[in-house]
Amino acid sequence: MTAEGLDEDGFIAREGSLGRVQEEFAPVVHYARTLIGEVFGGGGPDSDRQLHSAYLYGSIPRGTAAPGVSDLDLLIALRREPGKDDRSAADELEAAIDSAFPQVNGVGVLLFSASTLLSELERHDLGWFVACLCTPLLGDDLADHLPRYRPTALLARETNGDLGLALPGWRQRRDAAGTDGDRLRALGRGVSRRIVRSGLTLVMPRWGGWTSDLARSAEVFGRYYPERAEQMRLAAATARTPTADPAVLALLIDDLGPWLAAEYAAVHGMKTTRG
């Protein structure tokens, strides 16, 4: 019997496809494809912005998005290293899509060079992300140049073995935020999503499967750490419905997060240092 999230050969199956995009989100995806091509399409090899490829990820290509609740997640790969102008263009693209479609609650664009995504250093982090969690939208699929992946300790270490490095920044942004709105803008879903996914990858090699579903991730984690199961369920709920409640943020950033980072380091070690 094939384990959850794996193909018949035991590799993590690529999740999502354009065929799974729900009817409500089809116009959003079509507009995003068109706009990306216009903004980053570029021309010849000397173009300032030459698009290599673009991808969807998250709930929309998985077919699990909720209108008015879910965001649109995009990854854009350029043929050169992105610069400030590229980031500014991506910010404008985010705003244009978000303002045009009420069915999406925010738009996020990740911007990288194709060479970074294919690099040996990123083979088990960004490379895995593209190959397994991203759905091709435009251009040549980088997954054709990447290996297939199993739910190993190496993959666990390289995807989330740097959680501890994120904690000081989270605390700084929380402490600098003066209002609930500031805290939501500074931390949003990011903290809780990262914690839930770190919890899942911590136990992934023992479980032997993969899922991006947050509630399912919390459930799987709880099998191996029942004393932390309730906290992880709260993190999953917060990832779906963000809150600025100081008590919840304190639990995630000052309690569950530090424990998880320490346990991760003990079980899988630290992620390879980026230069």
Mean pLDDT: 93
- Could you tell me the CATH topology label of the largest domain: Beta Polymerase, domain 2
Kindly report the spatial arrangement of strands forming the biggest sheet: 3-2-1-4
| Integer tally of domains | 2
Strand content: 5-15%
Organism: Streptacidiphilus cavernicola
Pfam families: NTP_transf_2
InterPro entries: NT_sf (IPR043519), Polymerase_NTP_transf_dom (IPR002934)
Domain Polymerase nucleotidyl transferase: 53-84
Give an overview in words:
There is one protein chain. The protein has 275 residues and is α+β, with helices and mostly antiparallel strands. It has 2 domains: 18-145, Beta Polymerase, domain 2 (2-Layer Sandwich), CATH 3.30.460; 153-268. The protein is built from 12 helices and 4 strands. It has helices spanning 26-40, 59-62, 84-100, 114-117, 126-133, 153-160, 163-176, 180-187, 190-207, 214-224, 229-240, 246-268; strands spanning 51-57, 72-78, 107-113, 134-139. It has a 4-stranded mixed beta sheet with strand order 3-2-1-4. α3 (84-100) links the parallel β2 and β3. α6 (153-160) runs antiparallel to α9 (190-207), α9 (190-207) runs parallel beside α12 (246-268) and α10 (214-224) runs antiparallel to α11. The longest helix is centred in the C-terminal third of the chain and has 23 residues, at 246-268.
